[in-house]
């Protein structure tokens, strides 16, 4: 549809009637969360109204997040707490949930999963019925004397704020077996915190293991297509041409949209700036074109006027 408006890959700032036309033309809206609809525990001004209005106007809204730290049921309460009162659990696709689906339905892993990750990952594996190894090393255990389970058939890496050298070492040992799957919830390098601080993301843990094992992880989260496949397998009639992917990070959200054949929109309330998008657009290196959004808005609150005379 963007082609019809002449905006495909143009990184075009849109407003007013152009936004209204786009919202009317699309049936499926995929939103990244952090930097798009909220910053941590604060909703972006106007975002709850935008999301609730889209849902009330019969649009299909999904959330695709690489944040694997909380299970989907915790997301539902967060959505509600921040004012997104119309969001249901079925609309939320997190990298931990999709990793569990991948292990169960695609890899059909026979045996246990060794997890580097936090409770969000474990909870989703438990919900999906994917067996994983519970950590039970004594405090003085080292890689020289710890137990290694012969049942481990997959290593799953995600954000882990309790990462230890022993966990890394054990995962590296399991990955010596070429039959052992190597999966990462996502490959995000870092996440912004307040005051210019950052939080290292899952990507840096995956990188450590890739170096130690000499192998490449299969990445489940954006920009990989798998989350979109999860959505289309659970909801009928999800046509890429009818979808808009809205995100704040070119290298994950916009690339994900491009990889899945969706129109893409960058919102400037998060990580990426319009100058970076324009640099990709003007670059001679053709793979960079997949990182160029079709549309740019300052904030998704720019959608609000489109609903005003309809509500
Ligand atoms: Mg984001």
From TrEMBL:
Cofactor note text: Divalent metal ions. Mg(2+) is the most effective.
Keywords per UniProt: Hydrolase, Magnesium, Metal-binding
Coiled-coil portions:
none
| Binding positions (substrate) | 191, 222
Entries under SUPFAM superfamilies matching the protein: HAD-like (SSF56784)
Catalytic machinery residues: 32 (nucleophile), 34 (proton donor)
What one GO molecular function would you report for this record?
phosphatase activity
Q: Name one Pfam family in it.
A: Hydrolase_like
Name the residues that bind Mg(2+): 32, 34, 248
What GO cellular-component annotations does this UniProt entry give? cytosol
Family designation:
Belongs to the HAD-like hydrolase superfamily.
Its recorded name reads Pyridoxal (pyridoxine, vitamin B6) phosphatase
């Amino acid at each position: 549809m963007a082609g019809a408006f002449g905006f495909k890959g143009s990184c075009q700032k849109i407003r007013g009637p152009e936004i209204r036309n786009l919202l009317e033309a699309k049936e499926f809206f995929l939103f990244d969360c952090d930097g798009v609809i909220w910053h941590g525990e604060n909703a972006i001004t106007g975002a709850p109204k935008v999301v609730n209005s889209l849902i009330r106007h019969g649009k299909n809204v999904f959330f695709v997040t690489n944040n694997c730290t909380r299970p989907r049921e915790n997301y539902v309460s967060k959505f509600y707490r921040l004012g997104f009162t119309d969001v249901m659990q079925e609309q939320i696709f997190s990298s931990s949930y999709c990793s569990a689906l991948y292990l169960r339905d695609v890899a059909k892993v026979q045996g246990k999963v060794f997890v580097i990750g936090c409770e969000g990952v474990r909870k989703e594996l438990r919900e999906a019925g994917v067996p994983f190894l519970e950590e039970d090393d004594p405090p003085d255990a080292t890689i020289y004397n710890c137990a290694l389970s012969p049942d481990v058939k997959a290593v799953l890496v995600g954000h882990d704020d309790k990462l230890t050298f022993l966990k890394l070492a054990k995962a590296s040992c399991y990955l010596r077996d070429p039959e052992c799957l190597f999966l990462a919830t996502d490959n995000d390098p870092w996440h912004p915190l307040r005051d210019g601080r950052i939080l290292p993301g899952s990507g840096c843990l995956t990188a450590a293991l890739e170096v130690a094992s000499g192998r490449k992880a299969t990445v489940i989260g954006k920009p990989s297509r798998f989350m979109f496949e999860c959505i289309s397998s659970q909801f009928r009639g999800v046509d890429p041409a009818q979808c808009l992917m809205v995100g704040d990070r070119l290298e994950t959200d916009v690339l994900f949209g491009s990889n899945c054949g969706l129109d893409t929109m960058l919102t400037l309330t998060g990580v990426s700036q319009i100058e970076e998008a324009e640099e990709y657009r003007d670059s001679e290196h053709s793979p960079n074109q997949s990182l160029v959004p079709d549309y740019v808005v300052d904030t998704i609150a720019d959608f609000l006027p489109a609903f005003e005379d309809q509500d």
